[in-house]
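[INFO] parsing input record for Homoserine kinase
[DEBUG] input buffer:
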Amino acid sequence: MSKSWQITVPGSTANLGPGFDSIGLSLSLYLNLTVTLQDKWEIIHLSSDLPKTFKIEDHLIFKIANETAARFNKQMPPCRIEMESELPFARGLGSSAAAIVAGIEVANLACNLNLSVQDKCNISSQFEGHPDNATASVLGGLTISAMDKAGIVDTIHITDLDASFVVFIPEVELKTSEARGVLPEVFERPYSVLASSNANMLAASLVAKDYVRIGRYMEKDLFHEPFRAQLIPQYFEIVKAAKENGAYGTALSGAGPTMISMIPNNIGVQFVRKMEELYPTHKIILTKADHTGVHVTEIPVTSK
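[DEBUG] output buffer:
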């Protein structure tokens, strides 16, 4: 009798300005998988944003599930996976990290690995190369993380942020490799000190839940946004308009091209309406932080 599970993984935003490769925030935008053990592999995309044609052996979830099983000397059994996604590809909303977390969970369930939460944070961050999006998708909420050379992740986990978030999704894609290509290899020491100070103040403000300061330091990044801004449609205009209409602060979502504003809960509807008027070529979504992280429900098998 085949086992089936529903796996839900939140998308995420990373950095929030100067929290480069370290700060992540899960969002209530989801990747959903229905996974069933069977005698051959099938992956079925049910959302229009997901690719219509692909080779299963090239699929990220297939590769991550098999690689995770192999780490524990297990043979990954074939599965039927039906996928739905609210996360557009290559837009800076953690679609790859969510897929990695999902792939690890597929292996965990199918191979009875009994992975701990720490295991999931470590493995997903190792696959991603940094812990920001991955830990947020595993844990939910906001995460401030570091990963050592051995691939062990240490995370401060913050929940119950009293704010809403608005994402500005342009029609263009931006691959992380392209966005990283414009970054300098070296910073002068005084510049680095100031950039690190701004990152420290952002982290401290997030822990203190000081929303005015959070917004201020979201907009004081020196590590990546000054260099990526040229790649982002209407970057400066969106930052300015969002602030004028009540946002605490606005930053790139990950490497972009999506941008994200943190706003007071009570202005959400009118804020979105105004931004839609100003930026009709962007898809603008009002969302909240997700506080559950990756979630699994076993689907009861009904006998016929």
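[INFO] The chain has two domains: 4-159+290-299, 164-287.
[INFO] shutting down worker
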